[in-house]
Amino acid sequence: MAETKSLIPPAAAPHVLIFPIPAQGHINSMLKLAELLCLSGINVTFVNTQQNHSRLLSFADVQSRFGQFPGFCFETIPDGVSASISSPEDLLTDLFDRLKNVIKPGFRELLTSNRLNSDARGPVSCIIADGVLGFAIDVAEDLGIPCISFRTISACCVWIFFCTQKLVENGDIPFKDEDMDRLITSVPEMESFLRCRDLPSLYRTKDVSSPSLDFVNTETLYSGRAAAHLINTFDDIEAPILSQLRSYWPYLYTIGPLNALLDNLRSRTSSLPVSSNASLYAEDRSCMSWLDRQPEKSVVYVSFGSIAMVSREQWFEIWYGLVNSSYRFLWVRRPDSLITKDDEESHIQAELVDATKERGYTVDWAPQEEVLNHPAVGGFFTHSGWNSTLESMVAGVPMVCWPYLGDQQINSRYVSEVWKIGLDMKDNCNRVTVENLIRDMMNDKREELMQSTGKIAKMARKSVSPDGSSDRNYEALLEFIRKSC
Ligand code: UDP
């Protein structure tokens, strides 16, 4: 029976300010941390950029989810959002520009103005900033407040970022297109399986001093100045990498999978209803009743997260692949995910539409965690975003991975080669491959995939259960926060 605790933080409770970069995956996991802290009696201020804040708050469930915590408050800073982004390169360049020119000064202004000082919850006693926001560490140092760096991506990707200089010195980067399958030996713990194509997408550059590479390298090294580090992962799956990272960052707390840790704490400490993800998109829940009507483990859930964009050609290859596989599918087609929209309808073949009506369902955005845990879902065709990967691990659902950018390239390699819970379709989007890999996941290779998937799901749940590694680390984090108050 859950013990219902007061949601009002005790007098003189710490006040933590949480600051993600303005992207769905980052906001999502940092909001989970915010909710965890609120449930643990900590005051929390969550800083969003203006546009994301308006989008988030336009959804009633976000308001009710956080409105129930008297110690919780949203704050906003300007974002300088640009009107049109049409490629992954534009996306990153635009983000770096905005971080430097708008978000950084806005954050400093927020912390140094009187806006937060008059707060009835007391002054901010600790900052938890996204791991790539080194300027937050500077502001915290100026104000004499400890700053904790939070990595929302996989530890294996953080470790590659750490090794950037070594990759350059060893001549591993830049690499030629024909060298994509060459093994890379300069990243310890990954020598036997890391190929050029598995490096995070930023490394696919001819210019090793490109702004993106420089950004991750500088920010990763700079974040060493943080008082402690958090990663949304768990020890059992990334142990060798974590021990490498801990030799640089001794106060490294793994507190993942955060979605599972939060579910556990919710069920232990309160009788609050379990709420969904905090999304920047409106969830279409009609897919849940469609799933209710499908046989057990029969459906492939297809979603490429909040950032990935597909070309018309890729879109059709995926669609044909899904239809030709003959499996049922639930496909999230974000309205802003298709790169070219012109004349779309006239190209759609009647056979695709008919097959989709018969055994498919499409939505703009789904309640993903609930979908993955629905008994009808048997596989996940994913872009290998880190949140999606963790959510799939916890739900025990095998994956077909089609990574798009950032850490997704290395995540999908770990999924297929190290954890063996999925199949990697990297750089190979054609209808035959899609069809074959979906068949492998749902049938031909299912047994072996399900063995590892079951094992990893168990490990994930153990890590967040009382006295599991992430649960213990979360307690250590609370102690750290309380001491710095
Ligand atoms: N998500 C969702 N509904 C969808 C698609 C995604 O709720 O239809 C959530 C998903 O559960 C995950 C997040 O959006 O928590 C996506 O984060 P991820 O790191 O996987 O990818 P990104 O969006 O950062 O590329």
From TrEMBL:
Q: Which CDD domains match?
A: GT1_Gtf-like
Identify the residues that the record assigns to the Glycosyltransferase N-terminal domain, covering every copy.
16-161
Query: PROSITE patterns recorded for this chain?
Result: UDPGT
- Key words of the record: Glycosyltransferase, Transferase
EC main group: transferase
A GO term for molecular function: 7-deoxyloganetic acid glucosyltransferase activity
What stretch or stretches form a coiled coil here? none
EC code: 2.4.1.-
Catalyses which reaction(s)? 7-deoxyloganetate + UDP-alpha-D-glucose = 7-deoxyloganate + UDP + H(+)
InterPro entries found in the cross-reference section: Glyco_transf_N, UDP_glucos_trans, UDP_glycos_trans_CS
The answer to whether keyword Translocase applies is no
Q: Which PANTHER family match?
A: GLUCOSYL/GLUCURONOSYL TRANSFERASES (PTHR11926), GLYCOSYLTRANSFERASE (PTHR11926:SF1392)
Q: Which family does it belong to?
A: Belongs to the UDP-glycosyltransferase family.
Q: What is this protein called?
A: Glycosyltransferase
Q: Which organism is it from?
A: Papaver nudicaule (Iceland poppy)
